[in-house]
Amino acid sequence: MKHESDILIIGSGITGCAVARELSRYAASVTVLDRGSDIAEGATKANSGLVHAGYDAVPGTQKAYYNVRGASLYPVLCAELGVPFRQNGALVIALDDADVPTIQKLKARGEANGVQGLEILGRDALLAMEPSLNPQVVCGLYVPTGALVSPYEMAFALADDAALNGVSFYFNEEVTSVSRLPDGSFSVITGSSEYCCKVLVNCAGASGADLHNQLSNRKLQTVHRRGQYYLLDRAVKPPFEHTVFQCPSALGKGVLVTPTVHGNLLLGPNAEDIPDPLDTATTADGLSEVLRKAVLTWPALSVRSNITNFSGVRAHLTVDDFVIGPCDGVPGYFEAIGIESPGLSSAPAIGSELSVMIAGFMGLSRKEKTVPYPIPARPFHDMTDEERAAAVQSDSAYCQIICRCETVTEAEIRAAIRRPVGARSIDGVKRRTRAGMGRCQGGFCLPRVAAIIAEETGQSLQEITKNGGAGYLLAGSLDSFLKEASDHE
Ligand SMILES: Cc1cc2nc3c(=O)[nH]c(=O)nc-3n(C[C@H](O)[C@H](O)[C@H](O)COP(=O)(O)OP(=O)(O)OC[C@H]3O[C@@H](n4cnc5c(N)ncnc54)[C@H](O)[C@@H]3O)c2cc1C
């Protein structure tokens, strides 16, 4: 089967979704392909969820440029899209005298990058701010503009807005080859189809460099760098208000201790180079490294209320910077690859600037009208009693609590499935609503969520997966099992 569109984006992580939303404002047909079964199946679903202020990236790099601009766009964008965002501020701490020059260097870098309000604080000021900090702290960089966001909720909202404004999303479509045709257009081959487009945009995360190398003579190489985490129950109050980093190293920003935007506590990530970008396992060694380092920040560390561990994989290019923009020698091919940290922070700026480059190249005009984004209702968990009473009055499905740990109602699960790019799997519902994100990790609500997905989508229960692919929840029906058993007798 052959599909045609003006612009084709490979990858529906935060980068691809940000680009898609911006391009949906122009008069052009836009398609997004992803090998996953949902939005944000790559690095975007498993990271620290921080909007970095921009003090870490080396001045003059693409990372510095896009980080600072992206971070400045977050507050308004999150308000427009109803995505959870909280400016809690960050601290980078020096735990011995040898770290002090690094703290000074980070402040100078941040100022060169245009980050506002940076201040070096001494031990007393830091302990007054965060009494649970290691009392041996020497000094620290205070970063008031550091913030928390929900990375996948941001990607869902960007995708929904793009879809409402005409962008088509196709999942389970792994791009295996890309080529430029004699007329200057592109052919993109997936397992089942050929897609043709005038402009190709590579936002393919871990595969970004491989696809780039099929089109460009300048070959790029990726190092896949995994980071593992502990996530603690939000029933336990985080010991810190701020995100607390230790001094960064060549491998990354180091192990941090931070509240999440939803009020859990997150410890991690470590950094280990691995051959397979899809290997998101956690390991005993990786997790004990996280604990060994996190305890230096938080001496009273306790992971008794740990509810899950996870890992994400950074796509680090050996050129050690983001590669963003048109590609020399391949007119019509644009890319945003090597988008490791601070890629989440940078995404709004990458989306905005890359779309302007593409529109300029194609001579696109802006649409006269856009479809306004309907901000989803506040989570039932966060509503006041009055708001809950009104919600129940308006829709009786608010009366059914499906996830007890996170207080998620049937109404919210149905709404998540009905969104423009709606949930189709257990994990899709979980990331959109938090059903299954609590202490029991879905032990209670999973069958109920599966039944609602089946009802909403017209699928049988046997077709429902945990997260796409062959991850079916049920191995078969009891009837067919009993029939097979009796045939056997
Ligand atoms: C451990 C860790 C911690 C981090 N913490 C932060 C942080 O706190 N703040 C911050 O700013 N950044 C952070 N980052 C970086 C941030 O997560 C990434 O920069 C960002 O998510 C990259 O988004 P992306 O859309 O470019 O890539 P991805 O999210 O990986 O998306 C790429 C998409 O392309 C799809 N795809 C890949 N290959 C193909 C193919 N061949 N065909 C079709 N589809 C394909 C994938 O399925 C995926 O959906 C962290 C990263 C990690 C791993």
List the defining traits of the structure above.
489 residues; alpha+beta; 9-stranded mixed sheet; 8-stranded mixed sheet; 22 strands; 32% helix; binds flavin-adenine dinucleotide
Report on the structure:
The protein has 489 residues and is α+β, with helices and mostly antiparallel strands. Helix content is 32%, strand content 22%. The protein has 13 helices and 22 strands. It has helices at 14-23, 62-81, 100-113, 123-129, 151-164, 208-215, 284-297, 343-362, 385-394, 410-418, 426-433, 446-457, 478-488, and strands spanning 2-10, 30-33, 50-51, 85-86, 90-94, 119-122, 139-143, 147-149, 168-170, 175-180, 186-190, 194-202, 222-232, 243-246, 256-259, 265-268, 272-274, 306-317, 323-326, 333-337, 401-403, 408-409. β1 (2-10), α1 (14-23) and β2 (30-33) form a beta-alpha-beta unit. α1 packs parallel to α8. The mean pLDDT is 96. The protein binds flavin-adenine dinucleotide. Residues 10-16, 33-36, 41-44, 47-50, 52, 174-175, 203-207, 227, 269, 312-314, 339-345 line the site of flavin-adenine dinucleotide (FAD).
